[in-house]
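Q: Convert this sequence to C-alpha coordinates.
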Amino acid sequence: MNVAIVVAAGKGTRLGGNRPKQFLELDGIPVIIRTLRQFERCREVDEVVAVLPAEETAGFQSLAQQFGLRKLVRVIAGGETRARSVQRGLASIDEAEIVAVHDGVRPFVTPEEIDEVVAAARTSGAAILVAPFADTIKDIKEGRVIGTLPRINLRRALTPQCFRFDVLKRAYDQLGEVEAEGIQVTDDSLLVERLGVNIQAVEGSARNIKITREEDLALGEAILSL
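A:
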Protein backbone atom coordinates (compact mmCIF):
# COMPACT_ATOMS: atom_id res chain seq x y z
CA MET A 1 0.00 0.00 0.00
CA ASN A 2 1.19 3.51 -0.86
CA VAL A 3 0.17 6.54 1.20
CA ALA A 4 0.32 10.25 0.40
CA ILE A 5 0.82 12.96 3.02
CA VAL A 6 -0.64 16.18 1.64
CA VAL A 7 0.76 19.02 3.72
CA ALA A 8 -1.45 22.10 3.95
CA ALA A 9 -0.95 23.28 7.53
CA GLY A 10 0.23 26.80 6.77
CA LYS A 11 -1.81 29.63 8.26
CA GLY A 12 -0.62 32.39 5.95
CA THR A 13 -3.31 34.79 4.76
CA ARG A 14 -1.09 37.18 2.80
CA LEU A 15 -3.18 36.57 -0.32
CA GLY A 16 -5.99 38.47 1.37
CA GLY A 17 -9.13 37.52 3.25
CA ASN A 18 -9.41 35.51 6.45
CA ARG A 19 -8.72 32.03 5.08
CA PRO A 20 -5.34 30.35 4.61
CA LYS A 21 -4.21 30.19 0.98
CA GLN A 22 -4.98 26.48 0.63
CA PHE A 23 -8.67 27.21 1.15
CA LEU A 24 -8.87 30.01 -1.41
CA GLU A 25 -10.76 29.08 -4.55
CA LEU A 26 -9.62 28.50 -8.10
CA ASP A 27 -12.64 28.68 -10.40
CA GLY A 28 -14.96 28.02 -7.46
CA ILE A 29 -13.08 25.06 -5.93
CA PRO A 30 -10.67 25.31 -2.96
CA VAL A 31 -7.01 24.84 -3.86
CA ILE A 32 -6.62 21.97 -1.36
CA ILE A 33 -9.57 20.12 -2.89
CA ARG A 34 -8.09 20.50 -6.37
CA THR A 35 -4.83 19.07 -5.05
CA LEU A 36 -6.51 16.10 -3.39
CA ARG A 37 -8.44 15.37 -6.58
CA GLN A 38 -5.16 14.66 -8.38
CA PHE A 39 -4.34 11.95 -5.85
CA GLU A 40 -7.86 10.60 -6.20
CA ARG A 41 -7.23 10.13 -9.91
CA CYS A 42 -3.78 8.54 -9.76
CA ARG A 43 -3.29 4.77 -9.70
CA GLU A 44 -0.29 4.39 -7.40
CA VAL A 45 -1.60 6.04 -4.19
CA ASP A 46 -4.12 4.09 -2.11
CA GLU A 47 -4.67 6.37 0.88
CA VAL A 48 -4.20 10.06 1.66
CA VAL A 49 -3.48 11.81 4.95
CA ALA A 50 -4.20 15.56 4.96
CA VAL A 51 -2.29 17.76 7.41
CA LEU A 52 -4.14 21.01 8.06
CA PRO A 53 -4.18 23.91 10.52
CA ALA A 54 -5.73 22.66 13.76
CA GLU A 55 -8.72 24.98 13.42
CA GLU A 56 -9.50 23.62 9.93
CA THR A 57 -9.54 19.90 10.74
CA ALA A 58 -13.09 19.68 12.10
CA GLY A 59 -15.49 18.86 9.32
CA PHE A 60 -12.89 18.62 6.57
CA GLN A 61 -13.71 14.97 5.93
CA SER A 62 -17.30 16.05 5.23
CA LEU A 63 -16.07 18.68 2.78
CA ALA A 64 -13.89 16.10 1.05
CA GLN A 65 -16.83 13.73 0.75
CA GLN A 66 -18.87 16.47 -0.91
CA PHE A 67 -16.27 16.48 -3.67
CA GLY A 68 -16.20 12.68 -3.93
CA LEU A 69 -12.76 12.17 -2.37
CA ARG A 70 -12.65 8.58 -1.12
CA LYS A 71 -8.92 8.08 -0.54
CA LEU A 72 -8.72 10.59 2.33
CA VAL A 73 -8.45 8.44 5.46
CA ARG A 74 -7.21 10.91 8.08
CA VAL A 75 -7.13 14.64 8.73
CA ILE A 76 -4.64 15.72 11.38
CA ALA A 77 -3.38 19.00 12.81
CA GLY A 78 -0.02 20.25 11.59
CA GLY A 79 3.03 21.40 13.51
CA GLU A 80 4.88 24.69 13.77
CA THR A 81 6.83 24.14 10.54
CA ARG A 82 6.32 22.22 7.32
CA ALA A 83 8.79 19.58 8.47
CA ARG A 84 7.00 19.15 11.79
CA SER A 85 3.70 18.82 9.91
CA VAL A 86 5.16 16.07 7.70
CA GLN A 87 6.50 14.36 10.81
CA ARG A 88 3.02 14.33 12.33
CA GLY A 89 1.56 12.91 9.15
CA LEU A 90 4.25 10.24 9.06
CA ALA A 91 3.57 9.28 12.68
CA SER A 92 -0.07 8.59 11.78
CA ILE A 93 0.92 5.88 9.26
CA ASP A 94 1.27 2.36 10.63
CA GLU A 95 2.63 0.73 7.51
CA ALA A 96 3.19 1.52 3.84
CA GLU A 97 5.50 0.61 1.00
CA ILE A 98 5.93 4.11 -0.45
CA VAL A 99 5.06 7.44 1.19
CA ALA A 100 4.50 10.40 -1.12
CA VAL A 101 4.75 13.89 0.40
CA HIS A 102 3.07 16.71 -1.49
CA ASP A 103 2.42 20.40 -0.91
CA GLY A 104 -1.31 21.05 -0.57
CA VAL A 105 -0.95 24.28 -2.56
CA ARG A 106 0.35 22.53 -5.69
CA PRO A 107 -2.96 21.70 -7.39
CA PHE A 108 -1.58 21.29 -10.92
CA VAL A 109 0.51 18.18 -10.41
CA THR A 110 -0.89 15.52 -12.72
CA PRO A 111 -1.94 11.99 -11.75
CA GLU A 112 0.62 10.72 -14.24
CA GLU A 113 3.43 12.64 -12.54
CA ILE A 114 2.40 11.25 -9.15
CA ASP A 115 2.38 7.71 -10.50
CA GLU A 116 5.78 8.14 -12.16
CA VAL A 117 7.49 9.41 -8.99
CA VAL A 118 5.94 6.68 -6.82
CA ALA A 119 7.08 4.02 -9.31
CA ALA A 120 10.60 5.49 -9.36
CA ALA A 121 10.75 5.41 -5.56
CA ARG A 122 9.66 1.79 -5.54
CA THR A 123 12.69 0.97 -7.69
CA SER A 124 15.30 3.27 -6.18
CA GLY A 125 14.02 3.90 -2.65
CA ALA A 126 13.68 7.65 -3.13
CA ALA A 127 12.53 9.92 -5.96
CA ILE A 128 11.48 13.54 -6.33
CA LEU A 129 9.77 15.57 -9.03
CA VAL A 130 11.93 18.35 -10.48
CA ALA A 131 11.75 21.02 -13.18
CA PRO A 132 14.48 23.00 -15.00
CA PHE A 133 15.20 26.68 -14.50
CA ALA A 134 14.22 29.05 -17.29
CA ASP A 135 16.36 31.91 -15.98
CA THR A 136 20.09 32.32 -15.61
CA ILE A 137 21.05 31.67 -11.97
CA LYS A 138 23.50 33.99 -10.20
CA ASP A 139 25.40 33.32 -6.99
CA ILE A 140 25.00 36.41 -4.79
CA LYS A 141 26.94 37.33 -1.67
CA GLU A 142 26.39 40.53 0.32
CA GLY A 143 24.50 42.06 -2.58
CA ARG A 144 27.17 41.36 -5.18
CA VAL A 145 27.27 38.85 -8.01
CA ILE A 146 30.14 36.43 -7.46
CA GLY A 147 29.39 33.93 -10.19
CA THR A 148 26.98 32.29 -12.63
CA LEU A 149 25.84 28.76 -11.85
CA PRO A 150 25.74 26.13 -14.63
CA ARG A 151 22.01 25.93 -15.23
CA ILE A 152 22.21 22.62 -17.08
CA ASN A 153 22.85 20.76 -13.81
CA LEU A 154 20.31 22.67 -11.71
CA ARG A 155 16.68 21.79 -11.10
CA ARG A 156 13.85 23.21 -9.00
CA ALA A 157 12.60 20.70 -6.43
CA LEU A 158 8.85 20.14 -6.78
CA THR A 159 6.50 17.72 -5.09
CA PRO A 160 5.52 14.97 -4.73
CA GLN A 161 8.66 13.58 -3.16
CA CYS A 162 8.36 9.83 -2.64
CA PHE A 163 10.28 7.45 -0.40
CA ARG A 164 10.16 3.97 0.97
CA PHE A 165 8.45 4.14 4.34
CA ASP A 166 11.50 3.03 6.31
CA VAL A 167 13.76 5.53 4.52
CA LEU A 168 11.49 8.47 5.30
CA LYS A 169 11.11 7.39 8.93
CA ARG A 170 14.89 7.22 9.37
CA ALA A 171 15.22 10.60 7.70
CA TYR A 172 12.73 12.23 10.07
CA ASP A 173 14.33 10.61 13.11
CA GLN A 174 17.15 13.15 12.60
CA LEU A 175 14.85 16.20 12.30
CA GLY A 176 15.59 17.53 15.79
CA GLU A 177 19.34 17.25 15.23
CA VAL A 178 19.12 19.03 11.87
CA GLU A 179 17.00 21.83 13.31
CA ALA A 180 19.48 22.22 16.18
CA GLU A 181 22.15 22.91 13.57
CA GLY A 182 20.08 25.87 12.38
CA ILE A 183 19.19 24.24 9.06
CA GLN A 184 15.79 25.14 7.64
CA VAL A 185 14.17 21.96 6.34
CA THR A 186 12.23 23.15 3.30
CA ASP A 187 11.71 19.77 1.69
CA ASP A 188 11.89 16.11 2.63
CA SER A 189 14.71 15.17 0.30
CA LEU A 190 17.09 17.38 2.31
CA LEU A 191 16.76 14.97 5.23
CA VAL A 192 16.98 11.90 3.01
CA GLU A 193 20.16 13.25 1.37
CA ARG A 194 21.84 13.21 4.78
CA LEU A 195 21.29 9.44 4.97
CA GLY A 196 23.38 8.96 1.85
CA VAL A 197 20.42 7.53 -0.05
CA ASN A 198 20.47 7.96 -3.83
CA ILE A 199 17.49 10.05 -4.90
CA GLN A 200 16.16 9.71 -8.42
CA ALA A 201 15.10 12.93 -10.18
CA VAL A 202 11.93 12.68 -12.27
CA GLU A 203 11.36 15.53 -14.72
CA GLY A 204 8.02 17.25 -14.18
CA SER A 205 6.05 20.11 -15.68
CA ALA A 206 6.61 23.80 -14.96
CA ARG A 207 2.82 24.00 -14.52
CA ASN A 208 3.22 22.36 -11.12
CA ILE A 209 3.25 25.77 -9.45
CA LYS A 210 2.97 26.51 -5.74
CA ILE A 211 0.16 28.92 -4.85
CA THR A 212 1.78 31.35 -2.42
CA ARG A 213 1.22 34.83 -3.86
CA GLU A 214 -1.59 36.77 -5.53
CA GLU A 215 0.03 36.41 -8.94
CA ASP A 216 0.10 32.62 -8.46
CA LEU A 217 -3.69 32.61 -8.16
CA ALA A 218 -3.92 34.56 -11.40
CA LEU A 219 -1.51 32.12 -13.07
CA GLY A 220 -3.57 29.23 -11.74
CA GLU A 221 -6.73 30.64 -13.27
CA ALA A 222 -4.85 31.02 -16.55
CA ILE A 223 -3.69 27.39 -16.45
CA LEU A 224 -7.27 26.23 -15.87
CA SER A 225 -8.42 28.16 -18.93
CA LEU A 226 -5.95 26.42 -21.26
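Residues 139 and 146 are 6 Å apart (CA to CA).
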